[in-house]
Backbone:
C-alpha cells in the first residue's frame, strides 16, 4: 500500500483503540481486500470517513449494517461473491450523505420538509458516486434503493414488493435494525428486543417479510450460540 493508505489505516486503528473496539474486524478485512484489488475504492472509503467526520455515527453504522446484511446473506445461502457484493455495498451505502448539510445530519428533532427532502437525495447521490468506480456495478442497487419500502412508500423511486432488488431489501432490514439500536449523541439506542419487535410488526408493510423472518431467526440463533459459549 502507499503512504496515504498506511496513514489512513493507522488512523483507523488508533480510533478503534481509543474507543475500546476490536483492532481488526471483518469490515477492515473487506476494506483491505477491496483497496488492494479495486482502483478507486480507497477514494470511496475516504468519503465515508468524511461523512463520519460530519456525523460520528456513519462509519460504525455502516459496519453494523454490513454485519447484519451478511447474517441474512449467509442464512439465505448466498455465494461468497454475493456476500462480498452486499458487504461492500453496506460499507458504502451512506456515502451520498457527503452532500447533506451537517446541521441536517446532526439534527436531533423532527426534520422540516425541506430537510427531509435533502436526506432523500442521499441514496441517488451515493449511487452516482459509487458508479464512478468500475467494478462496483453490482452494489449500486443496494446503495440506490435501501430506503425503498415493501408497500411502495419509500424513496427515491417508490418501488414496492419484489420490484425492489433483493440486495436492497436485505439492506433495508439491516439498516433499520442498526439505526434503531445504535446510540446517537442525542438519544440512546433501543434494546435489540424492541427493535426486533418493530421489524416483525413492519414485515409486509415497510420491509420484505422473508428478509425480516430470516434476520429474526438468525439473530435468535446467534444469541443462543453466544449464551452457550
Residues:
Amino acid at each position: 500500500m502507499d503512504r496515504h493508505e498506511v496513514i489512513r489505516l493507522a488512523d483507523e486503528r488508533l480510533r478503534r483503540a481509543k474507543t475500546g473496539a476490536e483492532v481488526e474486524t471483518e469490515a477492515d478485512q473487506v476494506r483491505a481486500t477491496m483497496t488492494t484489488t479495486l482502483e478507486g475504492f480507497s477514494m470511496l472509503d475516504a468519503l465515508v470517513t468524511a461523512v463520519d467526520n460530519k456525523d460520528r455515527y456513519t462509519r460504525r453504522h455502516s459496519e453494523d449494517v454490513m454485519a447484519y446484511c451478511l447474517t441474512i446473506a449467509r442464512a439465505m445461502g448466498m455465494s461468497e461473491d454475493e456476500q462480498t457484493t452486499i458487504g461492500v455495498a453496506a460499507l458504502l451505502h451512506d456515502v451520498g450523505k457527503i452532500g447533506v448539510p451537517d446541521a441536517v445530519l446532526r439534527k436531533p428533532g423532527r426534520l422540516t420538509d425541506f430537510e427531509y427532502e435533502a436526506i432523500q437525495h442521499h441514496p441517488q447521490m451515493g449511487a452516482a458516486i459509487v458508479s464512478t468506480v468500475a467494478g462496483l456495478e453490482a452494489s449500486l442497487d443496494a446503495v440506490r434503493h435501501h430506503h425503498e419500502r415493501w408497500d411502495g412508500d419509500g424513496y427515491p423511486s417508490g418501488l414496492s414488493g419484489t420490484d425492489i432488488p433483493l440486495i436492497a431489501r436485505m439492506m433495508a432490514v439491516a439498516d433499520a435494525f442498526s439505526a434503531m439500536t445504535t446510540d446517537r449523541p442525542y438519544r440512546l439506542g433501543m434494546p435489540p428486543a424492541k427493535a426486533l419487535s418493530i421489524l416483525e410488526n413492519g414485515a409486509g408493510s415497510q420491509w420484505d417479510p422473508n428478509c425480516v423472518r430470516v434476520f429474526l431467526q438468525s439473530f435468535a440463533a446467534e444469541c443462543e450460540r453466544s449464551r452457550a459459549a
